[in-house]
From TrEMBL:
Gene3D superfamilies: 1.10.8.60, 2.60.200.20, Homeodomain-like, P-loop containing nucleotide triphosphate hydrolases. It comes from the Bacteria. GO terms for molecular function: ATP binding; DNA binding. This is FHA domain-containing protein. Residues 131-355 form the Sigma-54 factor interaction domain. Residues 42-91 form the FHA domain. It comes from Polyangium spumosum. SUPFAM superfamilies: Homeodomain-like, P-loop containing nucleoside triphosphate hydrolases, SMAD/FHA domain. GO terms for biological process: regulation of DNA-templated transcription. InterPro entries: AAA+_ATPase, AAA_lid_NorR, FHA_dom, Homeodomain-like_sf, P-loop_NTPase, Sigma_54_int, Sigma_54_int_dom_ATP-bd_1, Sigma_54_int_dom_CS. Coiled coil: none annotated. Keywords: ATP-binding, DNA-binding, Nucleotide-binding, Transcription, Transcription regulation. SMART domains: AAA (SM00382), FHA (SM00240).
Amino acid sequence: MSVKSTSPLHARPKELRLDGFSLSVVEGPGAGASLRARMSEVSVGTAEGNDLVLLDPTVSRHHFSISATSDGYLLKDLGSSNGTWVGGMRVLSGYVEPGARIRVGRTTLLVDQVNEDICEALSPEDGFGPLLGQSSAMRRIFAALPRIASSDTTVLLEGETGTGKGVLAAAIHEASPRASGPFVVLDCAAIAPTLIESELFGHVKGAFTGAQADRAGAFEQAKGGTIFIDEIGELPLDMQPKLLRALEERSVKRVGGNQRVKLDVRVIAATNRDLRTEVNRNAFRADLYYRLNVVRIHVPPLRERTGDVERLARHFHAELVPDKPIPDDLLESLRRQSWPGNVRELRAAVERAVLLDDPAILALGSEAPEAAEGDDEYDLDVPFRVSKQKASDQWERGYVRALLRATSDNISEASRRVKMDRSHLRTLLRKYGIRGDEERGG
């Protein structure tokens, strides 16, 4: 299978064309049901939200997905109870050939190739706001973003940690009619379960110990703008129906209060999990998932778009050292790595490379007077890795302190100024024990 271009030779393709496929139930309950894929990914299970809904009670709500890719048809089990089987073998993730039979519960499905291609638009640009990427995976996202941003539709962003979901959420906000309003971030993973209701919905004076005054929650703070609920997969189960009610009624009630406050806000949520799997595990409510899953964007990991590594590395290097090209040997080294930490890890690697290559950069983050270069600067009894990490931490600590001073401790402004993911900045603040004010005015 290959990506087929409809553009002239050497021109950038305007659409991604993948071999189409169909799924047919050949044995079991509902035999005869079939589906021809219209999008690159389809999901199968008993829940109504699936592309192909099965009638077999031994099948999970979200059992498996199958995607057309440039490498073939990729089958993924979604954490099903009874497993997904091909040729007598249980498959968690793998490619299947046309003609393969997939057994789930008491049902058998046939995968077949069809003559009609699946076509998805590709953006002619290799960026959208601060987002960068020349791979077809990213340009497919960029092509859809202008239409998504112009609407008020709820968006669910899925992808591994470090892929840039926070940057993507901010880019959608900045390109939307709500750009002049606040962009408020609430990280479910960074808030104690006992405080998350107050953080979301606010509280009234005396609602609990320490509630010394009325306080608006994130939904109210985002009035006229966008609320970005990060790591929503970490939201406690007992809070999920309350969030669902807020989304459906477009109103909230402060903790300890009686009146509901009407909302004027767009919702973007993000998670590093596949929420369909969480629904199967009863760790996430199905009704809340369907309410969030109006528009779902999967942000691919960097290892699946290796062609973007050089583009991103050049960009990060140019931000740090505008007048110096990135060394070829550094680029080659970066290309060879798998980047489990994704774009965030790549950026940190470029920063370390610049730091260790140029002592002047190290001095930028140092609050002490610059020492003269010489062998006395280095403790050669300390292992290289330890010395290297210590130098990196020193620069990073000084950089963050200088950044907060320049932005009057405003975390939102600081993250925008240096194009850093806000959750990563908060991680650095915790790491070095530095305090900054939370988002003021988005």
